[in-house]
């Protein structure tokens, strides 16, 4: 999955000379938390809802002396990190966390084409798991060796069970844990069959 | 006055097969009917043949293209498209005659609803039905067409407000999904939590949307939930939801897979607990909508051991005729050969305590907290809706 698949587009851009009070109104209207600031067609900064809301307050993050009638330029963050539409989302997620930021403008050939936020990436996680589609959830621990996953999927295909999603939430040099969502109502039959074939099924739990 | 009841039945409802060794066994319907006949609970005049399903009934709740694909795939055509709609899997394999078979299941449940709406009877059962996982354009979890949605849509077309109550071990996702934004259909589902069990949905936070907000209610229960805890959760949530909604008719999906012996799910109900649920639902229908009640089957994969007895209790609660303590020997002999194992001697279960006490306490307290949370979140929505309607 790439940034272009999950970004919000088009982004609502604001001009650096707009008064901060206009952005306050936009925040309420659009229900988004970050606005790229664009001047002469180029992204020059970003403002968040927190930057705007603290203006004129005694919040410790508030810039002293800034008033709502001042231009956005006075509170925007710059320079600004941007994402490319073809960036893999996992790189983008790591970047947001490493830099403790909530969103990045998405820029292609210097043009602003969207914005990608932490919420967009959470939505992507939900899509990747397939949660909400009718399925049964399994956790299987496999040896961290070539062919281990292939053997598991072969066994599942022999049961005519369709795999909705495969995730790898944990791995160490010896063991990889896979979370699979499989389109079957008969999870216990699938789990029993896998266990009988020697697979270490840790979810669903066994009977007491 | 004795309640007027109907048992919707036709031989083909028990004669279709999803596949060799498939856990869903429609022939359990004949085992039920035979049990009711041998115990004197089903005189001929209460048996009602299904009407033909009116044209357009399937398409009212299913994508017309999906119906076409199911029809074609039942004749071996358009198989690649069928796979895209969840057919041709181990859960819902394709077979010749599939479309006709599942259409007749819809016709039976439609008839049960129509019998109640028209006043032919107050309570009607179609134990062949209850295929609650089927979606608008997708087969899922042994279900191809959603007979419940067909019947509820019929009731809606007559202006009736419908309360749908689902006590199958699995979340009633297909019915919830169809009426999620509908303020005139309440869906309440008590089921084993989606953390553990298919279809993985039915969390307490699923409450409906738009006009239907508050009218989808879910109580996800812990594995190994027993009679006492199930009934406690039921009593906390179900009467309050139904009273706030004020239905014209109640639909009970009485899936029998919440029983301890069911091989597909992990709830631990006994027939005593299930019987208590059926009696409560009959009482709620009497109190809230002049008795109007439609009951279907659903899951139940200890196919001959549990569903015939469970639904005999449901039928007994609907008719007021008691089920004998000991099951007829001739019934046990006849169906032992079909089942391939011995069948129980008694209509109720011997009491058993399989769960360690510490697990039982934890399960009970977890379920209580879940039910209270659902009530806390949903009841203000109910109060608001009821307030809006009266102004």
Give a short summary of the structure.
The complex is a heterodimer of chains A (208) and B (391). Chain A contains seven helices and eight strands; from the N terminus they run ααββααββαβαββαβ.
Greatest interface? A-B, 23 and 29 residues
Structural class of chain B: alpha/beta
CATH topology of the largest domain in chain A: CBS-domain
Taking all residues together, what is the mean pLDDT of chain B?
95
CATH H level, superfamily name of chain B: Histone deacetylase domain
Oligomer: heterodimer
Specify the number of helices of chain A.
Answer: 7
**Regions with little confidence, pLDDT below 50 for 5+ residues of chain A:** none
Return the CATH architecture of chain B: 3-Layer(aba) Sandwich
Shape of chain B: globular
Estimate the strand proportion of chain A: 25-35%
Return the average pLDDT of chain A rounded to an integer: 92
As laid out across the biggest beta sheet of chain B, the strand order is 2-1-3-8-7-4-5-6
Beta strand % of chain B: 5-15%
Query: Which overall shape of chain A is indicated by the principal axes computed on the Cα atoms?
Result: elongated
Q: Spans of chain B with pLDDT under 50 lasting ≥5 residues?
A: none
What proportion of the residues of chain A is helical, as a percent range? 25-40%
Task: Describe the structure in your own words.
The complex is a heterodimer of chains A (208) and B (391). Chain A is an alpha+beta fold. Chain A has 2 domains: 3-125, CBS-domain; 130-203, 2-Layer Sandwich (VC0802-like). Chain A is built from 7 helices and 8 strands, in the order H-H-E-E-H-H-E-E-H-E-H-E-E-H-E. Chain A has helices at 3-6, 20-30, 49-53, 89-98, 118-129, 148-158, 187-196, and strands at 34-39, 42-48, 103-108, 111-117, 136-143, 163-171, 175-182, 200-203. In chain A, a hairpin with a 3-residue loop joins strand 6 and strand 7. Chain A starts with a helix and ends in a 5-residue tail after the last strand. The mean pLDDT of chain A is 92. Chain B is α/β, with parallel strands linked by helices and 391 residues long. Chain B has one domain (5-15, 23-63, 100-390): Histone deacetylase domain (Arginase, Chain A). Chain B has helices spanning 12-15, 28-38, 57-61, 64-73, 79-84, 98-118, 147-157, 173-178, 227-245, 271-289, 307-319, 329-339, 357-390, and strands at residues 5-8, 47-48, 123-126, 162-166, 185-192, 216-221, 249-253, 293-296. In chain B, helix 6 packs parallel to helix 7. Chain B is globular, with a radius of gyration of 20 Å. Classes of the chains: A alpha+beta (208), B alpha/beta (391).
């Amino acid at each position: 999955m790439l940034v272009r698949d999950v970004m919000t587009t088009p982004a609502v851009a604001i001009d650096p000379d707009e008064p901060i009070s206009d952005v306050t109104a936009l925040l309420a209207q659009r229900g988004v938390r970050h606005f790229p600031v664009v001047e002469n067609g180029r992204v020059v900064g970003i403002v968040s809802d927190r930057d705007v809301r603290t203006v004129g307050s005694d919040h410790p993050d508030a810039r002293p002396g800034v008033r709502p009638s001042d231009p956005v330029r006075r509170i925007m963050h710059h320079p600004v990190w941007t994402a490319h539409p073809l960036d893999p989302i996992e790189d983008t997620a790591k970047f947001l966390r490493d830099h403790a930021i909530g969103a990045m403008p998405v820029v292609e050939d210097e043009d602003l084409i969207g914005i990608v936020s932490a919420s967009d990436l959470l939505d992507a996680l939900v899509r990747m798991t397939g949660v909400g589609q009718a399925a049964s959830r399994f956790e299987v621990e496999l040896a961290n060796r070539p062919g281990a996953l292939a053997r598991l999927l072969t066994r599942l295909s022999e049961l005519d069970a369709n795999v909705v999603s495969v995730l790898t939430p944990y791995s160490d040099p010896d063991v990889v844990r896979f979370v699979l969502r499989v389109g079957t109502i008969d999870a216990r039959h699938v789990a029993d069959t896998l266990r009988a074939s020697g697979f270490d099924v840790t979810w669903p739990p066994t009977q007491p | 006055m004795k309640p007027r009841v109907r048992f919707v039945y036709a031989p083909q409802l028990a004669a279709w097969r999803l596949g060799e060794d498939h856990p869903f066994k429609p022939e359990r319907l004949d085992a039920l009917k035979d049990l009711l006949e041998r115990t004197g609970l089903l005189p001929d005049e209460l048996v009602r043949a299904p009407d033909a399903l009116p044209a357009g009934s399937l398409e009212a709740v299913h994508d017309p293209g999906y119906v076409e694909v199911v029809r074609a795939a039942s004749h071996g055509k358009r198989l690649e498209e069928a796979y895209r709609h969840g057919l041709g899997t181990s859960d819902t394999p394709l077979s010749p005659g599939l479309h006709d078979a599942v259409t007749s299941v819809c016709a039976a449940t439609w008839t049960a609803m129509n019998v109640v709406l028209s006043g032919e009877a107050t309570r009607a059962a179609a134990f062949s039905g209850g295929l609650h996982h089927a979606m608008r354009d997708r087969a899922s979890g042994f279900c191809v067409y959603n007979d419940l949605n067909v019947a509820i849509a019929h009731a809606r077309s007559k202006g009736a407000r419908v309360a749908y109550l689902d006590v199958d071990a699995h979340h009633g996702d297909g019915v919830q999904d169809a009426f999620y934004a509908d303020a005139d259909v309440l869906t309440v589902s008590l089921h084993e939590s989606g953390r553990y069990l298919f279809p993985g949905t039915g969390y307490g936070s699923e409450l409906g949307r738009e006009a239907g907000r508050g009218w989808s209610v879910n109580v996800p229960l812990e594995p190994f939930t027993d009679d006492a805890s199930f009934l406690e959760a039921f009593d906390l949530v179900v009467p309050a939801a139904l009273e706030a909604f004020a239905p014209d008719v109640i639909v009970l999906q009485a899936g029998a897979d919440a029983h301890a012996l069911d091989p597909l799910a992990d709830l631990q109900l006994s027939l005593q607990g299930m019987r208590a649920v059926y009696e409560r639902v009959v009482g709620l229908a009497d109190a809230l909508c002049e008795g109007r009640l439609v009951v279907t089957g659903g899951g139940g994969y200890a196919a001959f051991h549990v569903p015939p007895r469970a639904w005999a209790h449901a039928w007994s609660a609907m008719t007021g005729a008691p089920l004998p303590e000991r099951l007829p020997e001739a019934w046990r002999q006849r169906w032992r050969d079909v089942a391939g194992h011995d069948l129980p001697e008694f209509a109720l279960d011997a009491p058993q305590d399989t769960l360690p006490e510490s697990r039982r306490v934890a399960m009970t307290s977890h379920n209580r907290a879940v039910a209270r949370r659902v009530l806390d979140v949903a009841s203000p929505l109910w109060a608001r809706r009821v307030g809006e309607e009266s102004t």
